[in-house]
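Below is how a single chain appears once it has passed through the pipeline. First comes the sequence as given, then the structure the pipeline wrote out for it. We keep one example in the README because the format questions we get most often are answered faster by looking than by reading.
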Amino acid sequence: MRTRLRVLLFLLVCLLTLVFIHICFFLRTPITPHKPVEVDIVPGQSAWEITQTLKNTGVISHACTFITIAALTGKAKHLQAGAYVFEGNHVPMDIMDILFRGKTLKYRITIPEGYTIYQIGEAVSRTGLIPKNLFIQSALSPKTKDFFQVKAPSMEGFLYPDTYYLVPHMTPLEIMAKMIDRFRSIYTPEMEQRAKAIGMSKLEVITLASLIEKEAHTKAEQPIISSVFHNRMMRGMRLQSDPTAIYGIMGFTGKISPDDLLRESPYNTYRHEGLPPGPICNPGLDSIRSALWPAKTTYLYFVSQGDGTHSFSRSLEEHNRAISNNSKQKKNRGIL
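Resulting structure:
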């Protein structure tokens, strides 16, 4: 009897040892999906349903072990719905941190309205997660926009400016997934209908919104500046938006010069008619709404007054007077 009990205890110890080794191996072994995997978690899904999806898509290697650890750590009860993209070498605990985020967030970044993908890359790199150039290259890659089904030259314009929480080992694609998921929640069916009503595609709306975002320094002027662009497009006039002339020049600082306005670029609206081929920054909600619902004006020109506001004009003659008056005011204030 004692011999049998000893054998059973020995077998139990061996079994527990094997389980322990299996768990340790599972926790320490990163899984690399063969291709980026997008997982949509909807409210009401159980932790087991999510775990099965992760196993079926190749994000984790063992469903039972994953759900057991999730339950033991208490994370199985704190699932948050959302769209997730898994691409890099994540160990299971990293995946849990992503799926059951809220208590284990590591990095917080805020992307201001009007940031370009180059500036977003800089902001992400400051967290120490990934180098700036790696993020920018991914944002410019045709494979990335195809993956997210973005019909644009790049991800510019669709990485919504907001505050985001990131976890270790996230890849550029995984970070951008959070931003475009936020964009999709902002760009409502009402906006889709309005765009169709005024004969604009989503890309054209976001491109125009990006110009408005760069030109307007106050929320109140955004619909008015939008009206100027709409009025000029209706008349076949070039938009002549200064920020378009320097788009794509990394690290550009200072004032835009007359030489910059002559720069050959498909984005330069001084050289080319109509909207640029894509957005020149990532606009906020107010700029997007202004692009869709411009103010009703007959303005065709605007010029900065040097205090964050603009003078608006209906004719070139009136516009030239505004430029002259503003130059005199700046000179009197010692600006020129």
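Confidence is low (pLDDT under 50) at residues 331-336.

See the next section for the split statistics.
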